[in-house]
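Q: How would the structure tokens look for this protein?
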Amino acid sequence: MTLRLPPGAVVSEKELSDHLGIGRTPIREALQRLSRERLVTILPRRGIVVSEINVKSQLRLLEVRRELERLISRSAARRASDDERKRFRRIASDFRRSARANDDVAFMRTDREFNSLQGSATRNEFAIGAMALMHGLSRRFWYLHYKQAADMPLTARLHANIALAIANQDEARAGKATDELLDVIEKFTRDSLSTDV
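A: Here is the predicted structure in token form.
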């Protein structure tokens, strides 16, 4: 996801095992999962290819992601426990802090925590399972293009709006805030076309 293995790179189980210092069985299992998530393509007897990043595919993914994200946010606003609501408030503050500092590392750390808490608060394992398949692809796309086309402070503030709506049990606002975020993400995706070589 962080592009340490660039799109199009060809790797082998042995290379990965040697590089990471772990056995080939866990490497094989991880590669099978990455293949299911469309992050790699396994070519029998030829190696493993890190999947290319494609704007058109990313836009199709965003169509589905928008609907799922809206469902997840609204469900979390309805079902979150009091403790989870407190944590959403803190996360909203963390997102705002990362926006003010323009700190992409803090933003990504907070985003990961936000996604995990949303998953718990949603109480819908099917929505979360489907979303997990999209997070990896979305993060890879972000890592490739965010320095050229993204407005990270705006993205962080929009995430904060969702977290606060969930904390306030405001389902309608959570859905609207999610749409606002996805509008920006879709624009970022389209704008990244002009940064591609």
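Residues 1 and 139 are 6 Å apart (CA to CA).

Helices lie at 13-20, 24-36, 55-79, 82-101, 104-122, 125-149, 152-167, 171-191.

Upvote if useful.
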